[in-house]
Design goal:
The complex is a heterodimer of chains A (971) and B (518).
Chain A: H1 5-17, H2 23-36, H3 42-52, H4 56-73, H5 86-102, H6 105-122, H7 130-138, H8 143-157, H9 167-197, H10 202-222, H11 229-233, H12 235-247, H13 263-281, H14 283-286, H15 290-303, H16 311-325, H17 337-352, H18 356-364, H19 366-375, H20 382-418, H21 420-438, E1 439-443, E2 447-451, H22 457-470, H23 478-490, H24 497-510, H25 516-530, H26 543-546, H27 550-560, H28 570-583, H29 591-607, H30 612-632, H31 637-653, H32 660-673, H33 680-689, H34 692-695, H35 701-722, H36 727-738, H37 744-757, H38 760-763, H39 767-780, H40 784-801, H41 803-813, H42 817-829, H43 836-852, H44 854-858, H45 865-877, H46 891-895, H47 899-902, H48 924-938, H49 942-950, H50 953-965
Helix pairs in contact in A: 1-2, 1-3, 3-4, 3-5, 4-6, 5-6, 5-8, 6-8, 7-8, 7-9, 8-10, 9-10, 10-13, 12-13, 13-16, 15-16, 16-20, 17-20, 18-19, 20-21, 21-23, 22-23, 23-25, 24-25, 25-28, 27-28, 28-30, 29-30, 29-31, 30-32, 31-32, 32-35, 33-35, 35-37, 36-37, 37-40, 40-41, 40-43, 42-45, 43-45, ...
Chain B: H1 3-16, H2 21-24, H3 58-61, H4 74-82, H5 86-101, H6 108-113, H7 117-124, H8 130-144, H9 148-156, H10 159-166, H11 172-186, H12 190-198, H13 201-206, H14 215-229, H15 238-252, H16 257-270, H17 275-283, H18 287-293, H19 299-312, H20 317-325, H21 328-336, H22 341-354, H23 359-367, H24 371-380, H25 383-399, H26 402-410, H27 413-419, H28 426-446, H29 449-458, H30 461-468, H31 474-487, H32 491-494, H33 498-501, H34 510-517
Chain lengths: 971, 518
């Protein structure tokens, strides 16, 4: 590709087409560009266009395309061709810095990104002059250029903040420090001086302050890994200036914007980070400066307003104080009573106040509000930072801090009492203060688990919380109501049961509040109360205690789902699920009504599933309805099928992918309730379940396998009869699963059900093929998981069809195959089988091989008899061998990307573990003893002699024990 | 029955999981790139302007030293040194020496460039002119104390054999001057150190140690010996080490703090290597004395003694046991609480290596009361100490028994490391996550994972680990993510209503589930 006008023209046209809104124009152009990007000069053509094109749009487009090209192609991957020719690489590196610096900002940003991508690969070895080139620009005096350099440096150096220490990394940092640290320091000083000379020129100040912010960021990156000698020597310069900037205010730089942080805030915020870095990692060297920073940051906090734009700065600044006040050697900076009082009064209390921004979120953006307030995504908020500072101070000063705040709480509460309508925010702050003061440890499952003993939580509940809960107008002061509900919820483990019981009906009535936050909190609080454990591992609140409120509870929960903004409220849905689960048979009378509402909801959300948690709890609730009702009367299963199948059919027909795993689980649950027959409605669906498309999605596999297992259990006769032509398809599923290291165990679940339930004559023709497939897999990829499943299957087969059949089918595939499998697989690996049922199957199967297989007594297999017996005794007596060969340590994870998350398991659709042997064999050890006895009477003398020659003493001792327990003797 | 083998094999799998236990011992990697200032406690590699103990009265040497006459210019010096008159030569040498001794910017290069070095070296051999000999030696010593380039000039002018011969000088101050010069040359690095050793410097030095050698002389000699033991890549030849060790041991039993300090530094250099090198030191039987010196009231003695023991416990289990038997665990608690952060750090480093040992040693560590100071350091220590302390916890949790891990958690270590999850150091965070994972594995054996999950959450750990899922470092992200997946997965969906769901999900028994994850 030549660098000529023709090519520039062509490229311009294609670039323009990539901006076309019509995909029919856009896509081919994108395809074309990708097809030619491997040509030499392609990147240079782009650089030419972004520099020289007359069309501004094309220039930007070329810049973006160039950046993406670099992102995709610059890295040289081992064993793959170099995707950018060497001359192009050299030319790009020679020109890009200049180009970046002389370009307008939009293009500069793209090129700066490109430089950092190239730098990540080539810097410093393959781009030795980059740094000096950049440093030279510091002297240009043009701050647009300087900021370009600083921005690029920032994107090159910021990885020092998260990479592990290594000689390679530190050599690079050292090199950077050697060339960069001094010029950066000079630039820092010069910039600060310029700020003074231009103190009245707002435009100049803006540019200079963005430089200072970038310089401060570079300082952070360069000082992150360790304290460099240069910066230790120049700490005075840096820290004095940082301190000065922290205390500086310039009216010209104040912004009117309430939301967006201004330049001053960004700079100060970064300086707080820098100080925090030094305080944490280089305490010894930083100690002389620290008190000054504490004072400056504290003054900063006292003088900073409530606007949202200051949030990051304020929370960083408070976090700095919080981290310092916990250190024993800085204790003295805080311990003075006046200091403590002033921190509490001027820093903590103001930042706990409910601001208008919070009020807006409470009303208009309840989801965000709940996420922050309830789920702890409030990391960067002022309230959270203030809370952390309270906890930090309590480490050394719990009593004085509690005393100071008690005073505040009381005065705020009396302010509120004077004029609740006007001063409700005072009460909100008081509650928040009590909460942060009282909570020392907290979990989602139990709420607050450790509380400050100096705070009387129960008294506060009775005097200040209960009144809000009891207030007849649930829609008055919704914020205070939400606070009160939250108080019950988080202190649930601290409050006595009678208080909780008193709160339950009040919470139920709050489910009807108009405020989304309020009724959501009520649902959540109820849900949490219902999961609390009482004595004997039962629930703290019993179904009997709930009896007077059951109807009201169910009514209000479902009514809450109809409130505006809560149609798919996951907290309410979860509370429904939890209520069903708590109330059990008490819900049966209401189910006919409720199931209609649930299926209606399901139909609605299946149009456009958007709230995964809501949907999950919805299906859980459906499962609970089915289980609880059918437990009382299994005949009702058909009425559920009538209600649910139309919706399910729609979901299946529309292929609503998110819901299929759930639908399969609910269907399994329903089908498993049936006695030993399968309704025709299920059989009609059977062929569809075998469709390959369904099995391509990993999330479908576990529930589909379970569903097919239910089909086999209930309908094997039907399948063998009217659907015999589907058997190969069914086995095809098995084959598909067995081919995957991740899903082979699912294939075995299916195969085991086939062996267990299908009439033998219906599968006789496929048996040999099944084994051949298994052997192939064994040969090509023998993983521990596969072997474990294989062992269980082989033994189940033996139990079902007999040891002779097993031996014959093996040997018919290949002579001596049976012996080889015994020797190479069963004997050495059976120790790895896990699970009680699995072990039992293996024990019974091996017993049969030992005692019911003539070939084991009369052929060359005889030599395997004692080792097999010894392995069986090992299975009974030794700890399970869970070792895994090194090379397959990570197989399952690698082969199943996102598997666990893709399969949405329903807890309440659970199925009981299936034991194909069941009561037929009570104790496999006794069975072994009896079977050996039988064998020994059939061929007297042989068994004892085999035992005495080669069974080891310990095993023999165990065996004697079994024989004694079975009261038999070997002859 | 192969019970024992199976169990052993499993333990080794457990320990091997993810990392080689040998690597848990952190060796000091001296050749690594440093960003910091050279450590302030370390010995100086080269010394200029020390005082000779055996220096006769200054006036006797330099009658004009108190004169107010202006010092000679470099031109005058060149003229004098190059003259044939012994008197002028002596005057020139002395003037050069004085110029080179000035505190600020001594004109080392100017003197070298003036081509005076070959003259100085030739003066060294003039046994008849002790004053000239001495002044030349002094001047050369000062030049050798400069940068590598300066030292190189001195060596390349043939000063090494001349200085070694001077060691035998009957004039004590001249011999001592040679000791000093050789120390500076040895301190330059492994190459010149080995040149000196090749020239048999060691026997010549050791020959000067006798019962009536003045203490001051011994101090300088010990320092020179320590420089001959110093530096890696390569280490000093084993034969030289074996030659020098008996005398070092002897010196370590003297009472002078400077001698003790340099002798300890020498031992610390010799023990800073692979296990074979450590073995040579341990075999001398000096370990108990080193442990004793760890309690020495002088920081300059205690620091290198601690460093030496730290090196020794970074060796094999057996070598570590030698230090443990000598009582190192009784001394460490007070050092962990020492007022100087650098001492705390070294002590914590030693502790982290002992914690990497077998559970028997871990038990001794618990018995000797090391857990309380460890937790104190995790909570309030200087960052560098916290880092070592975190390693100690991780090593402890990967090699300790379940009971030992429980003791550790009860001592407050879990809470402390969770607090440290906010440090600004990706590696430390990863090491902590590793420790938390190890603690969970212990809890799994006790069937108490759920309890531990709650504890970690109560301590604020869940929040922090969740936040780490946003960490820019991929390995940190992975480790945090896998902890959350394994131990904090949506626990509440499973844990509902025992009677109906407890065994329900045995659809896949827990064991099958486990293999599923690996």
């Amino acid at each position: 590709m030549e660098l000529n006008d023709g090519n520039l023209q062509t490229l311009t046209e294609f670039l323009r087409k990539t901006l076309d809104p019509d995909p029919a124009v856009r896509r081919p152009a994108e395809k074309f560009l990708e097809s030619v990007e491997g040509n030499q000069n392609y990147p240079l053509l782009l650089l030419t266009l972004l520099e020289k094109s007359q069309d501004q749009v094309i220039r930007v487009c070329a810049a973006v395309t160039f950046k993406n090209y670099i992102k995709r192609n610059w890295r040289i991957v081992e064993d793959e061709p170099n995707k950018v020719s060497d001359p192009d690489r050299t030319a790009i590196k020679a020109n890009i810095v200049n180009l970046m610096l002389s370009s307008p900002e939009q293009i500069q940003k793209q090129l700066s990104d490109a430089i950092s991508i190239i730098g990540r690969e080539d810097f410093p070895q393959k781009w030795p002059d980059l740094l000096t080139e950049m440093v030279t620009r510091f002297r240009s005096g043009d701050f647009h250029i300087i900021n370009g350099v600083l921005r690029t440096a920032h994107s090159l150096f910021k990885r020092y903040r998260h990479e592990f220490k290594s000689n390679e990394l530190w050599s690079e940092i050292k090199l950077v420090l050697d060339t960069f640290a001094l010029p950066l320091t000079e630039l820092f000083k010069a910039t600060i001086e310029l700020c003074q000379t231009h103190a009245t020129d707002v435009n100049a100040l803006k540019v200079l302050f963005s430089s200072l912010t970038l310089i401060s960021k570079l300082f952070y990156s360069l000082n992150f890994q360790d304290l460099p000698e240069f910066f230790e020597d120049n700490m005075e310069t840096w820290m004095t200036n940082f301190h000065g900037l922290l205390t500086l205010d310039n009216k010209l730089l104040q912004t009117d914007d309430e939301e967006e942080a201004g330049l001053l805030e960004l700079l100060k915020s970064q300086i707080c980070d820098n100080a925090a870095l030094y305080a944490q990692k280089y305490d010894e060297e930083f100690q002389p400066y620290l008190p000054r920073f504490v004072t400056a940051i504290w003054n900063l906090l006292v003088s900073t307003g409530q606007e949202v734009k200051y949030d990051l700065l304020v929370s960083n600044a408070i976090q700095f104080l919080a981290s310092v006040c916990e250190r024993p050697h800085y204790k003295h900076l805080f311990e003075d009573q006046n200091t403590l009082t002033s921190i509490c009064e001027k820093v903590i209390v103001p930042n706990m106040e409910f601001r208008s921004a919070d009020e807006e979120a409470f009303e208009d953006n309840s989801e965000e509000y709940i996420r922050r307030d309830l789920e702890g995504s409030d990391i960067d908020t002022r309230r959270r930072a203030a809370c952390d500072l309270v906890r930090g101070l309590c480490k050394f000063f719990e009593a004085p801090v509690t005393a100071i705040f008690s005073g505040y709480v009381n005065s705020m509460l009396s302010e509120y009492a004077k004029n609740p309508g006007g001063n409700w925010k005072h009460k909100d702050a008081a509650i928040y203060l009590v909460t942060s003061l009282a909570s020392k440890a907290q979990t989602q499952k139990h709420g607050i688990t450790q509380a400050n003993e100096l705070v009387n939580l129960n008294e506060f509940f009775v005097n200040h919380i209960l009144s809000d809960l009891k207030s007849p107008n649930v829609n008055e002061f919704p914020v205070l109501k939400a606070d009160a509900i939250k108080y019950v919820m988080i202190f649930r483990s601290q409050l006595p049961k009678e208080q909780l019981l008193q709160a339950v009906p009040l919470l139920i009535s709050h489910l009807q509040a108009e405020s989304t936050v309020e009724h959501t909190y009520a649902a959540h609080a109820l849900e949490r109360l219902f999961t609390m454990r009482g004595p004997n591992n039962s629930t703290l609140i019993t179904a009997a205690e709930m009896a007077p409120f059951t109807e009201q509870l169910l009514n209000n929960l479902f009514k809450a789902l109809a409130l505006p903004g809560s149609a798919e409220n996951e907290y309410i849905m979860k509370a429904i699920m939890r209520s069903f689960s708590l109330l059990q048979e008490a819900i049966v009378p209401y189910i006919p009504t409720l199931i209609g509402q649930l299926t209606h909801k399901l139909l609605l959300v299946s149009k456009n599933p958007s709230k995964p948690h809501f949907n999950h709890y919805l299906f859980e609730s459906l499962c609970l309805s089915v289980r609880i009702t059918c437990k009382a009367n299994s005949a009702t299963v058909s009425s559920f099928e009538e209600a649910l199948f139309p919706v399910f059919t729609e979901i299946l027909q529309n292929d609503v992918q998110e819901f299929l795993p759930y639908v399969f689980q609910v269907m399994s649950l329903l089908l498993e309730i049936h006695a030993n027959s399968i309704p025709s409605s299920y059989m009609a669906l059977f062929p569809h379940l075998l469709q390959p498309a369904l099995w391509e999605r990993t999330g479908n596999i576990p529930p589909l396998v379970r569903l097919l297992q239910a089909y086999l259990e209930k309908g094997s006769a039907t399948i063998a009869g009217s659907a015999a032509d589907k058997i190969p398809g069914l086995l095809g599923v098995f084959q598909k699963l067995i081919a995957s290291k991740a899903n082979d165990h699912q294939g075995f679940y299916l195969l085991n059900s086939i062996i267990e339930h299908m009439p033998p004559e219906s599968i006789i023709q496929y048996r040999k093929q099944i084994f051949i497939l298994l052997f192939q897999r064994l040969q090509s990829s023998k993983t521990t998981k596969f072997i474990k499943s294989f062992l269980v299957f082989v033994n189940l087969y033996c139990v079902k069809y007999g040891a002779i059949a097993l031996q014959e089918i093996f040997d018919s595939i290949q002579p001596k195959m049976f012996g080889m499998v015994l020797e190479k697989i069963i004997i050495p690996e059976v120790q790895k089988v896990s699970g009680a049922v699995e072990k039992k199957i293996c024990a019974v199967g091996i017993t049969k091989v030992l005692t019911e297989c003539p070939a084991m007594m009369d052929t060359e297999y005889t030599k395997l008899w004692t080792p097999l017996l010894q392995a069986l005794i090992g299975l009974f007596e030794l700890p399970e061998d869970d070792s895994i060969p090194d090379d397959e340590h990570f197989i399952d994870i690698e082969d199943t990307p996102g598997y666990q998350t893709a399969f949405s398991q329903l807890a309440f659709a659970g199925k009981k573990e299936h034991d194909p042997i069941g009561d037929a064999v009570g104790n496999p050890k006794i069975l072994l003893a009896q079977s050996l006895h039988k064998l020994s009477t059939a061929c007297p003398g042989r068994v004892p002699s085999m035992l005495s020659t080669s069974l080891n003493a310990e095993a023999l001792q165990y065996l004697q024990g079994y024989l004694q327990a079975a009261t038999v003797q070997l002859v | 029955m192969p019970t024992k083998n199976v169990v052993d094999e499993r333990i080794s799998k457990f320990k091997n999981k993810g990392k080689d236990p040998v690597k848990l011992r952190e060796k000091r990697i001296t050749e690594c790139v440093e960003l910091r200032k050279a450590s302030k406690n370390e010995n100086f590699m080269k010394r200029r302007n020390i005082t000779l103990s055996s220096l006769p009265d200054e006036d006797a040497l330099s009658p004009d030293s108190n004169d107010t006459v202006t010092p000679l210019s470099i031109e005058d010096i060149i003229k004098d040194v190059n003259s044939d008159s012994k008197e002028s030569q002596t005057r020139g040498c002395q003037a050069a020496r004085k110029l080179l001794s000035q505190e600020r910017n001594p004109p080392l290069k100017e003197i070298v460039d003036a081509g005076l070095l070959s003259r100085f070296v030739s003066f060294l051999c003039m046994d008849d002119e002790p004053t000239l000999q001495f002044e030349a030696a002094w001047a050369l010593t000062n030049i050798a104390s400069g940068t590598s380039w300066h030292t190189q000039q001195v060596v390349e002018h043939g000063a090494v054999p001349a200085f070694i011969s001077l060691l035998a000088s009957p004039m004590l101050h001249i011999s001592e001057q040679a000791v000093w010069a050789l120390g500076n040359i040895a301190g330059d690095g492994p190459a010149y150190r080995d040149v000196l050793i090749e020239c048999n410097v060691i026997p010549a030095l050791l020959a000067r140690i006798c019962p009536d050698t003045p203490v001051g002389y011994l101090r300088n000699l010990t320092w020179t010996l320590s420089n001959l033991c110093r530096n890696k890549n390569p280490c000093p030849p084993l034969s030289a080490v074996l030659q020098v060790l008996p005398s070092l041991i002897q010196l370590l039993h003297l009472g002078d703090k400077d001698i003790l300090s340099d002798a300890c530094w020498a031992i610390s250099y010799l023990s800073d290597g692979d296990n074979d090198r450590i073995d040579v030191v341990v075999k001398t039987g000096i370990v108990p004395r080193l442990v004793e010196l760890m309690s020495h009231k002088e920081l300059s003695v205690m620091t290198p003694a601690l460093r030496s023991i730290g090196n020794i416990v970074s060796g094999s289990d057996l070598q570590t046991q030698a230090a443990v038997d000598a009582g190192v665990l009784n001394v460490l608690p007070q050092l962990m609480r020492h007022s100087k952060p650098s001492v705390q750090k070294e002590a914590a480093w030693a502790l982290s290596n002992i914690a990497a040992g077998p559970c028997k040693q871990i038990q001794q560590l618990i018995t000797c009361g090391l857990l309380p100071p460890l937790v104190e350091q995790l909570r309030n220590g200087d960052f560098k100490t916290q880092r070592e302390a975190v390693w100690a916890v991780t090593n402890f949790t990967s090699g300790g028994t379940v009971e030992q891990v429980v003791t550790l958690v009860q001592s407050g270590a879990l809470e402390a490391i969770i607090n440290l999850l906010q440090v600004k150091d990706a590696k430390v965070i990863l090491v902590i996550l590793d420790a938390i994972n190890n603690i969970f594995m212990a809890a799994e054996k006790l069937g108490e994972t759920e309890k531990l999950s709650l504890l970690v959450e109560e301590l604020g750990g869940l929040d922090r680990i969740e936040m780490l899922q946003n960490h820019d470092n991929d390995m940190v992200y992975q480790a945090a993510h896998s902890l959350i997946e394994k131990y904090f997965g949506d626990g509440e969906i499973e844990g509902i209503k025992v009677d109906t769901t407890e065994d329900a999900f045995l659809f896949k028994s827990p064991d099958v589930q486990r293999t599923f994850e690996f």
